[in-house]
Amino acid sequence: MQPHLKQYWRIPPTASAAYVACMEDVLEVYARRYDPLRPVVCMDETNKQLIGEVRQPLPTTAGDPARMEHEYKRNGVAQIFLEVEPLSGQRHVEASERRTRRDWALWIAGMLETRYRQAERVVLVMDNLNMHGIESLYATFAPAQARRLAERLEIHYTQKHGSWLNMAENELSALSRQCLNRRIPDLQRMQHEIAAWEADRNNQQPKINWSFRTQDARIKLESLYPNPTD
Fold first, then answer.
1. Is the pTM of this model over 0.90?
2. What is the pLDDT of residues 29-39, one digit of tens each?
3. Which domains are present in the chain?
């Protein structure tokens, strides 16, 4: 008898005013025209187990697949931050040892003061993880710097079970398939691999054409909308 197979999905709630309000807010952001002074940037994080070899893999030969020992050793976990600007096709990725409020705040400072220093304000789309807030800036920097950074952010949160709205998730998926789908033994090697992937991806500049709009949501996701007459 075949075992019952299960598939796990992020199933959104039905008839949720909070969900659709947040969804339509993000969809409105994605409908904006490109503006280099107010770029739309999506960000997200993930982690990756660092895996080392207990024996060196056998050398490959023509026509034969790579052969490696099935045993391995765990070398900790790398935390990965990724941002993507859909309308310019630019990505930035970093791997570090931690994912804390301070790490997020330092990432935001790098975004605003280095990668987007010419922008008046960055329109930032991300999930509502507890560290993704202005308070993290104040917990990390002096008040004047925290306020200066905060004033250059326009934040739009995706709702719980609404991660499909964050285009950075698609980029993390591409990163996992194209770069992280093998054993990587340590953080330094992972940083090297990620930097190479980022450079190649940015050279290609694949822009993201987000075509799903608010009117599409109101038709195709009708069950998410509450009935105002109830």
1. no
2. 999 999 999 99
3. 17-52+72-222 (3.30.420.10)
